[in-house]
Amino acid sequence: MSTRPWTPRDIRSDFPILDQMIGDRPLVYLDSAATSQKPRSVIEAMARFYERDNANVHRAVHTLAGRATEAYERAREALRRFIGARSASEIVFTRSTTGSLNLVAQAYARMRLRPGDEIVLTPLEHHANLLPWQRAARETGARLVYIEPTDDLRITEEAIDRAISPRTKIVALAHVSNVTGGVAPIAHAARRAHDVGAAIVVDAAQSAPHMPLDVQALDVDFLAFSAHKMLGPTGIGVLYAKHEHLLAMEPYEVGGEMIERVTLMEATWAAPPWKFEAGTPPIAEAVGWHAALDYLGALGMERVEAHVMRLTALAVEALSEEPGVTVYGPREGRHAVVTFNIGRIHAHDVSTVLDAEGIAVRAGHHCAQPLMTQLCIPAAVRASFYLYNDEEDVARLVEGVRRVKEFFGDVFGESVS
Amino acid sequence: MSLENLYREVILDHYRHPRRRGTLEGDGVTVVDLKNPSCGDHVTLYVRQEGDRLAEVRFKGEGCSISMSSASMMSSQVEGLTTEEAAGLVAVFLRLVQGEAIGEAWEEKLGDAVALRGVSQFPVRVKCATLAWKALEQALARGSGVRPSR
Q1: A367 in active site
Q2: Are the Cβ atoms of B65 and A363 closer than 8 angstroms?
Q3: Which chain B residues are Cβ-neighbours of A361 within 8 angstroms?
Q4: Is the ipTM of this complex over 0.90?
Q5: Given A32, A211, A264, A310, which is the most exposed site by the fewest CB atoms within 10 A?
Q6: A363 contacts in B (CB within 8 Å)?
Q7: A26 has which bridge partners?
Q8: First vs last Cα of chain A: how many Å apart?
Q9: pTM of the prediction?
């Protein structure tokens, strides 16, 4: 697809929500790692689908049903292209990244794990890529083994090598951490996993929005991400899985849409990917996601990545220099997120003061409680950047942080000034 | 939605210098541990009852300025009350932070905690303010068979 040159200012007008005041300050949206905003083309594609093409998929033979089915399957094909999969049959629609990871854990891992087998993961995982494995381990007698991050919370190739053993059956890790923005060496982890006959499962929720992905180059077995963090609607995610795995897996949910033949006593399943898509799927959401992929494709994922990394680096640098501010994670090579605290001021108080300045950030444990425990902090503030943010937003954040220090400065005396 | 309405000086003072911070043990002490899972705020409340009176109230915990100052204010305010009076105060406080008018007599009984009225304009922070009071509600229910208000 041909790409056009762009700047955040050019494309800002494509996002109606960004043009508003919070109190008396213009909104600065720095919470895209939680969910991104949506361009008009996505909103309109969904509205158009409901206005003109809406019908259920894979059922009736009337014209609308044909259009809806075609639109839904075209979205699947667009996702195949986006991640470089061999076949659209390797693309399973789910309700979210969480749904995708639970599907792998329940429909693939549980059948395969035996007592004493090991599941390798990192302490940086989002709860969505932790709890399904805790449960799979509990139910099968497998063990959880953790890759040890560096002091600045990076996942290195050496640490991966130390954690993987002949007992490893699953390696599950985030491509980009939602707390540190650090990138894990996925291709290396995949090679090591395959060396010992294990499968690798990648949580790409934080990488798919702003990195070119190529599942064949990475050689991963499973990859999960969702639409809403990459300009698309909520309620739809995807599980990429190598075809051989999908053939071997039993469906997790059974019911309508996923059958081949049903009698009163038994049923046979449709071929992958449909056998994993029981019930009416999120059709309009698939259409919206397709529009989001088109939008990203026109801008170019390499450029989106370069832009987001540059802004993140600017923010990390500026906040690291700010007295009293602690930035967590690596200084360099970060994608999209900067997580920090200001002195002993609680993240919620920081977030409330920033909100009064019109700045939306996330405050809390970021669904990574084990990591927070390891850092000995109850909570942290996270600012995250996307293609519609620019240097001015970084400047507003830094200004906001100074305002927080001014406001609470006297609470803990010299600790933050 | 001004910040000064939320972060009143008396709130920051309780945050800076918490009253009744500490622990209790021994006979007649009820301990309630309460977390706000969405943000990690955490309060452990210690209540020592003598008959139907709250003889001593202490807390420990960690969290934002609102949750910690609220715990400090609540602990100072209910010490010495009967369980019934304390339960009444909890109910009134929960109304206050929803933005309801509670009348001067109750305001006096709530003492410094009246300053937390401002959270009603910050709906996402109401849970911070009520954490310690919910802990007291549980302590009262557990300690003496007094039912939680409402």
Answers
A1: yes
A2: no
A3: none
A4: no
A5: A264
A6: 39
A7: A21
A8: 50
A9: 0.90
